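Lecture 7 notes: from sequence to structure.

We start with a single chain of 112 residues. Read the sequence below before looking at the structure.
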Amino acid sequence: MNVSFEEIGHISATFATDSAQVGTLCKMAENGKVAPCEAGNAFCGKVESVRKGFAGVQLHGFAEVAFTGSAPKVGYQILVADGNGGVKVHTAGKSYLVVSVDDSAKTAIIEL
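Now the structure, written as tokens:
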């Protein structure tokens, strides 16, 4: 039996951007504008689309994210941006619910 978390609680919004890339995590850069995260940054969402200087960003719901370093554990984990578009486990910051981890693919499904 497969379990799917797609589209559960999914909320997205459009923001201006100069450099956001699809599939990566982003942060607020200024009023109404997002930018890629640097290592250790808190993130606001996952970029779903980029077109003509605007980014569609998933702000809530379950999202698959790449991770570097130690694999997050299922349950609540403190996560920050890894500087490469994904996340890494950290000792301080916001706690996210991790519902699935794929060690071989280096991905996790988290609730934003």
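Residues 98 and 110 are 4 Å apart (CA to CA). Keep this in mind for problem set 3.
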